[in-house]
């Protein structure tokens, strides 16, 4: 049953991702996507995430090839899946938190913990400055409404701009949060 849920969430995400990207106008940006963390593999990220998060990945990651990329699906609970997209060398490209169902205050706080833990596992130290950064990004996404929203926050120490995109499919009651990093081509 759990594998069926993970595959269903993956299908919903993959079917909805292309139109959302075009609607957001992200294809017109001059930036180029880069690896989230050059030294971090999928296994390293999953281990770091599970070590710090109150909502760990349950069981083994499900792997699926997607062209030049590999997607790993990890169930967190019955309503939330973490999708880890990596290149063929296993280095992280982007992450997606996918949630099925309504988001009340309890679910919003759970998603905030998952979001913060994801950023910490990606290498952001859990200090006051980085907690402010994570909260600022999460609050800008306003996960309880159906509006497509993006937050772009620069990190000077990594010379990368982090992009957070929230999309909602109200018909399927699925909310996704994309986390990736870009560098400016200019």
Notes on the structure:
Strands 1, 2, 3, 4, 5, 6, 7 and 8 form an 8-stranded antiparallel beta sheet that branches. The chain is 35% helix and 33% strand. Residues 1-27 have low confidence and may be disordered. α2 (42-52) packs across α3 and α3 crosses α4 (128-141). The chain has helices at 2-24, 42-52, 105-121, 128-141; strands at 31-34, 62-66, 69-75, 80-87, 92-100, 149-155, 160-169, 174-184. The chain has 4 helices and 8 strands, in the order αβαββββααβββ. With 186 residues, it is α+β, with helices and mostly antiparallel strands.
List the helices and strands and how they pair.
Blueprint: H1 2-24, E1 31-34, H2 42-52, E2 62-66, E3 69-75, E4 80-87, E5 92-100, H3 105-121, H4 128-141, E6 149-155, E7 160-169, E8 174-184
Antiparallel strand pairs: 1-8, 2-3, 3-4, 4-5, 5-8, 6-7, 7-8
Helix pairs in contact: 2-3, 3-4
Defining key terms:
single chain, 186 residues, alpha+beta, eight-stranded antiparallel β-sheet
Low-confidence stretches: 1-27
Biggest pleated-sheet summary? 8 strands, antiparallel
Our measurement of the CA-to-CA distance between the termini, rounded to an integer number of angstroms, reads 48 Å
- Total helical segments: 4
